[in-house]
Amino acid sequence: MEQMIARFPEQLQEALSLTESIVYHKHAHALRQVLISGLGGSGIGGNFVQALVADECKVPIWVNKGYDAPHWVGRNTLAICSSYSGNTEETLSVFEQLAPTGTKVVCVTSGGQLLARAQAHGFDVATLPGGWSSPRACLGYSVVAQLGVLRAARLIGKRIFRHIEAARKLLVREQEDIRSRAQKLAGFLAGKLPVLYCADAREAVAVRWRQQINENAKMLCWHHVLPEMNHNELVGWRSPQPNVAAVWLRHRDDHPRIAARIDIVKEIVEHLASASIEVYSKGKTPAERTFYLVHLGDWVSFYLAQQCQVDPVEIQVIDYLKAELAKIK
Question: What is the Cα–Cα distance from 61 to 270, expressed in whole angstroms?
Fold first, then answer.
């Protein structure tokens, strides 16, 4: 896992070069919406894509993380089915529902059943490099490939790819500081229940932190976003929480009213949580700030795994779940 996380900047560079080979065979029907379907490490890529091009994409983007495709899909829909392994059963279920609808399907995968079924149907495929033992470590491939599909479909331009390249350079420059910062954060969170808060527009980052802490460090964790949190969860902060550590994931360009809300809520929470810390992003663009926090969070989860003395790659309980589900026809 340490090697895979360390390769993230290199992965972004490789992914950017792969986008040049992504094709989209046009059809007569104008696109009106995009559906991105995927789970876990493959699914979170869709959330990042949705956030990164929200101000540019010409049509709305919907992210689906279940067994069923929405009923509105059809000839005016571009559907991206994302599964690194190609064997995620929920994504395969959605694919089979999409295939006969006339939906323009593009699969993002390294192989497996999804690749075989896409080829059988004659659908476009963005093929990812194989050989990575943990699909969650392939976020760079997933995000950039999905963005490449949107560009091939002429729904976005080239600007986001320039920003991702700048993000890659930022991560290389800041690598030593990021790892040092992550070690300190891991020490801060060790033995506690992390609670992550951020602005709603940055939720994908908080979800990534939560998922990585869950899988790599084998720890429970939760997250919420502002301002929504102010309308419900805030009231739950009523009594001392001696095992909870609040983490505020912040950006200098957060909406001013949300920044003000965080300042006020943080003061409330700090009187009740055992610990509280602000984590600011670095970078000039949303892509730079996003990938900075993603990479920092990945390292935090790795160092937490070391603190907890657990194998960050091992996911035996998920393997058990899949084996039990395989017994049910």
Answer: 37
Q: In b/e form, how buried is each residue of 219-249, taking b as 16+ CB within 10 angstroms?
A: bebebbbbeebbeebbeebeeebeebbbbbb
294 within some domain: yes
Token pair 């409330």: residue: 268
Q: Torsion over CA of 268, 272, 273 and 274, rounded to 10 degrees? A: 130
Residues acting as catalytic residues: 215, 231, 322
- Residue range 136-163, pLDDT digits in tens: 989 999 999 999 999 999 999 999 999 9
Residues in a beta bridge with 277: 247
Closest CA to 214 of 141, 318, 292: 318
Task: Please tell me whether residues 115 and 16 are part of one structural domain.
Answer: yes
Phi/psi-derived region of residue 245, left when phi > 0, alpha when psi is between -120 and 50, beta in every other case: beta
Average pLDDT value over all residues in the chain: 95
* Tens of pLDDT, residues 51-88: 999 999 989 999 999 999 999 999 999 999 999 999 99
Residues 137, 196: one domain?
no
Name the residue among 191, 184, 129, 167 with its Cα closest to residue 281: 167
Residue 109 pLDDT class (50, 70, 90 cuts)? very high
Closest-CA residue to 153 (of 53, 58, 44): 58
